[in-house]
């Protein structure tokens, strides 16, 4: 019996897609490319996936596990000799423990569904990001997603208590811990969180939930000068402490592009300032929390750290502020084709890094380059989009050099939250030592000796 | 040249201890047993340890890395054929980045020194526990220590950004990341955090610091009935949110033993209630935070959830409350010899578990058994001390059966924060599946094929 007949016996007729039907499927959430795999397998359960992997292992068939296809680093690109594993038939929210504040989900559940299901019980999930409607929990786990509330709740890693994965040989590792503290042996889940499907395939997870905050106060500040920006962050951290849940910064060009130039938004603050900060505080005491944020903003203005500020006075205004931060559509329409970066670096080096970048880009392309910067300053994470004209593979390459190379000297990372995928492989050594990369390859070889899981991603073709 | 001559050339005369001088050294922080190793090696740097491990690897010489010797699971016991690695000459606090809020330390630094050094800059470290004066950061990392503020800041794992380790063959893995977000390849540090020195030896770390909270409000509540206890925790979590930093519960017997029977403390509340909760809130707004805690306590009393409560009105009163919680000396003097447990289990199963345990113990030993329970309820972690008379190895064994076996059915853990060491090895399968344990052994074999690192701990003799 050939491999696909055997797989079809496991997953049923609807579980296996081959031929032209594969090409009709997208390779990314925008549908700009078509799926390149030889087949798509859609298991309904972990047991089915285990059986599939046993067959693939026997046949040395490489597989590419894919989630909501919202990644930005070509982390789930599939070649003609590869089988894509889809989780679109594993979208169950299995249970919610309201007292223990945990939720058990299958890998295919969209992030937004987790938020909605938790909210019905007065609970919230600590990871949120712009792609919430499309991205899947399994993908969020495999890439250790970050997002807008990392300074308060941490990344995906800190919000996953237990995990179930299928290894390359089909073994099911069910590590569905629901306890906040468990030091009984090695904490295996951390091997699989953030390793982009190269060590195992995430099938189910136990998520940690939190009480929904009773208060939510959102503001935008305009700031001139990076030192003032850093001081505002320091002041907000000290005064708001555990209330501070977001501190998102837009450099002038990005704010003006989206809030003003696009014509799609009502700009809450005028253009022309160096930085725009979207600050959000969530807590348990609405009157007090709003007053505290107002007091903090007042101090920033009085001390001359901020030039202007506005607090959202309704949920509608709050959402409008976030829509400016999350309007990737405008950015794509105006700036693409472009290079998208997701770097992290120490706060103390950030301004020099960006100013040197600005100078280098203009030295290379004069006024034929646009670039915008925004990011989660609170955790040192910047997203940078660079759009040189004319666009070419060589231009892309040159932009990458200009952005990545200076990171080595300041201990920055070439990927804060997007991962490595195919796109950043050759830059991995900027952020990791040869010994670290050798150890990664040793782990890959131990867990996936035939290199069947997401081949070529993170570590390159020769790994596994 | 024999192994020890070669080691002496690396570490110098003072760096190698052999013979009777080894026996003069303690095996635990109380000095109750003497060090059983054939030699103690005291490197001054990571490079020295790397050279030592290259020699040991060549000679197939097993080693036992040891920290402050405050562990409770025989995690660093050394045999006559083993060499102990001591970090007493690696106690430097190398640097503090006040803006980035990080600290670089060597493994031998005591936890308390970290707190003190951070405090000088208005910063705090998120992990604290009773053994702070003796335990070392390297040991805290290797065991993924928890402690008193896990509900606010997480365990050691969440408070370590970067790590340097020496592998079994002497390779130095320098993964000294100082960034809050870094998804550039596998997050290797999590392999070594909590694996009790069996996969690599921690030599240096980058710790995450936080601003020192501007407010600290501490209270003790007396509560009758487990449902009320759970409701008080729920109410405090909802109302205090990110302010709630400790929620430590003492079951009646333990509170009465320490606060009243010992004669060492002034009891803040009378005996006779089912539970005593030590609640602490830390925040940024002293007046508001104290008023909020007071309001929450008021609600607990009004709603009949708590019977009595007292708020510490001074730092002295606050410390006196914590001294009751942390008085392990009294517990040892009155109850030892005894079995010490560190389990975690879902809050919803906790009362039934303890009541069944109480019944089983009295069924077995009548009134010839004392037991006390206290723990970090907020994260499902209970410490249980059982003292049956007459004491014997058989009695210890029987107590272990009575405590551990019921955990399997309720997905509890045989170790919440103490680790496995030698002591809990045979109970590991209560909390972990055969597939999980097989994967742990596979990792051990990949990283330490000759089984040279902390032999026998966690996984047993045959691993590696």
Please outline the helices and strands:
2 copies of one chain form a homodimer.
Chain A: H1 3-11, E1 16-18, H2 20-23, E2 39-41, H3 46-59, E3 63-66, E4 83-86, E5 93-97, E6 102-106, H4 111-119, E7 123-125, H5 137-142, H6 150-153, H7 156-159, E8 160-166, E9 172-175, H8 189-192, E10 201-211, E11 215-223, H9 226-240, E12 244-251, H10 252-261, E13 275-283, H11 286-302, E14 308-311, H12 315-326, H13 328-335, E15 339-344, H14 347-365, E16 369-376, E17 381-388, H15 393-409, H16 428-431, H17 434-447
Parallel strand pairs in A: 2-4, 3-4
Antiparallel strand pairs in A: 1-2, 5-6, 6-10, 7-10, 8-9, 8-10, 11-13, 11-14, 12-13, 12-16, 15-17, 16-17
Structure characteristics:
homodimer, 464 residues, alpha+beta, Uridine Diphospho-n-acetylenolpyruvylglucosamine Reductase, domain 2, Uridine Diphospho-n-acetylenolpyruvylglucosamine Reductase, domain 3, Alpha-Beta Plaits, seven-stranded antiparallel β-sheet, 17 helices, 17 strands, flavoprotein (chains A, B), oxidoreductase (chains A, B), Vanillyl_alc_oxidase_C-sub2 (chains A, B), FAD-binding oxidoreductase (chains A, B), FAD (chains A, B)
Explain what the structure shows.
By secondary structure, the first copy, chain A, is an alpha+beta fold. The first copy, chain A, has 4 domains: 3-86, Uridine Diphospho-n-acetylenolpyruvylglucosamine Reductase, domain 2 (2-Layer Sandwich), CATH 3.30.43; 93-211, Uridine Diphospho-n-acetylenolpyruvylglucosamine Reductase, domain 3 (2-Layer Sandwich), CATH 3.30.465; 215-328, Alpha-Beta Plaits, CATH 3.30.70.2190; 336-430, Alpha-Beta Plaits, CATH 3.30.70. Helix content of chain A is 37%, strand content 22%. Chain A contains 17 helices and 17 strands. In chain A, strands 14-11-13-12-16-17-15 form a 7-stranded antiparallel β-sheet, sandwiched between helices. In chain A, a hairpin with a 4-residue loop joins strand 16 and strand 17 (381-388). In chain A, helix 1 (3-11) runs antiparallel to helix 3 (46-59) and helix 14 (347-365) runs antiparallel to helix 15. The radius of gyration of chain A is 23 Å and the shape is globular. Chains A and B meet through helix 6, strand 9, helix 9 and helix 17 of A and helix 6, strand 9, helix 9 and helix 17 of B. Chains A, B: Its cofactor is FAD.
């Amino acid at each position: 019996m050939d491999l696909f007949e055997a797989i079809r016996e496991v997953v049923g007729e609807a579980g296996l897609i081959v031929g032209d039907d594969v090409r009709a499927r997208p390779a990314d959430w925008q549908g700009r490319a078509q799926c390149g795999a030889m087949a798509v397998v859609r298991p309904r359960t972990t047991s089915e996936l285990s059986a599939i992997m046993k067959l693939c292992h026997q046949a040395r068939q490489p597989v590419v596990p894919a989630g909501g296809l919202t990644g930005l680093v070509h982390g789930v690109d599939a070649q003609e000799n590869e089988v894509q594993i889809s989780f679109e038939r594993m979208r169950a929210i299995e249970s919610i423990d309201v007292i223990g504040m945990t939720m058990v989900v299958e890998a295919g559940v969209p992030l937004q569904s987790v938020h909605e299901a938790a909210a019905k019980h007065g609970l919230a999930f600590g990871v949120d990001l712009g792609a919430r409607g499309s991205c899947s929990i399994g993908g969020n786990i495999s890439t250790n997603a970050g997002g807008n509330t990392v300074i308060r709740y941490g990344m995906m890693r800190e919000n996953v208590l237990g995990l179930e994965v299928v290894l390359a040989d089909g073994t099911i590792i069910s590590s569905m811990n629901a306890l906040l503290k468990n030091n009984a042996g090695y904490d295996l889940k951390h091997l699989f969180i953030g390793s982009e499907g190269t060590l195992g395939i995430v099938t189910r997870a136990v998520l940690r939930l939190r009480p929904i905050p009773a208060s939510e106060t959102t503001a935008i500040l305009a700031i001139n000068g990076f030192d003032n920006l850093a001081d505002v962050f320091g002041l907000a951290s000290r005064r708001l402490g555990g209330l501070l849940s977001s501190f998102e910064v837009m450099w002038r060009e990005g704010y003006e592009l989206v809030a003003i130039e696009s014509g799609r938004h009502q700009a809450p603050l005028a253009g022309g300032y160096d930085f725009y900060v979207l600050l959000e505080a969530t807590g348990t005491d609405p009157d007090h929390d709003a007053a505290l944020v107002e007091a903090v903003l007042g101090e920033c203005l009085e001390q001359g750290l901020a030039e202007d500020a506005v607090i959202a006075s309704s949920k509608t205004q709050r959402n409008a502020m976030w829509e400016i931060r999350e309007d990737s559509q405008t950015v794509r329409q105006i700036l693409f084709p472009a290079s998208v970066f997701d770097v992290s670096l120490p706060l103390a080096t950030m301004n020099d890094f960006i100013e040197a970048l600005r100078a280098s880009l203009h030295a290379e392309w004069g006024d034929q380059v646009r670039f915008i910067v925004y990011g989660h300053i609170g955790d040192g994470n910047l997203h940078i989009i660079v759009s040189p004209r004319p666009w070419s593979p060589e231009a892309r390459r040159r932009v990458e050099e200009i952005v990545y190379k200076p990171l080595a000297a300041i201990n920055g990372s070439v990927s804060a939250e997007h991962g490595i995928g195919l796109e950043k492989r050759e830059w991995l050594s900027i952020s990791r030592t040869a010994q670290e990369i050798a150890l990664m390859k040793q782990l890959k070889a131990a867990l996936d000796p035939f290199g069947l899981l997401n081949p070529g991603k993170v570590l390159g073709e020769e790994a596994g």
